[in-house]
Amino acid sequence: MAQRQRERSSRWESGSGEVELVDGSVCEDVAWLVMIERAQETFTGRREPARWELRVTELFRNGDAGWERFHRHADPLVDVHSLDEMLALLQ
Predict the structure, then answer these.
(1) In angstroms, rounded to a whole number, what is the distance separating the alpha carbons of residues 2 and 18?
(2) DSSP class of residue 10?
(3) 9-61, pLDDT tens digit by residue?
(4) Which residue of 11, 39, 47, 69 has the smallest Cβ count within 10 Å?
(5) Does domain 2-89 have CATH number 3.90.1150.10?
């Protein structure tokens, strides 16, 4: 997993963004967050920054070492991306 994250992170050169918390809660030893991540990113090989907006769900569990994230799912916000942008993400 760490290797895949390193490979993907090499596609970004710079950027800035913000996170909007939509919902979250804790139930016993499990917690979850639902967020919108909005960013302006400059990708490797491109000159102009691009909008990068994701709907994100993260799950956490409370174990011996404290709270740790054990699952993250993120997908592009369909209503703000063209079909061409969405299809390019699949490559």
Answers:
(1) 24
(2) T
(3) 667 677 788 999 999 999 999 999 999 999 888 878 878 888 888 999 999 99
(4) 47
(5) no
What are the structure tokens assigned to 18, written together? Answer: 């913000």
* 34 contacts 25 by C-beta, under 8 angstroms: no
- Does the predicted model carry a pTM greater than 0.70? no
Helix residue ranges per DSSP H, the chain: 2-9, 83-89
Here the tokens at position 50 are: 């691009």
Domain positions in the chain: 2-89
Which residue type is seen at 69? R
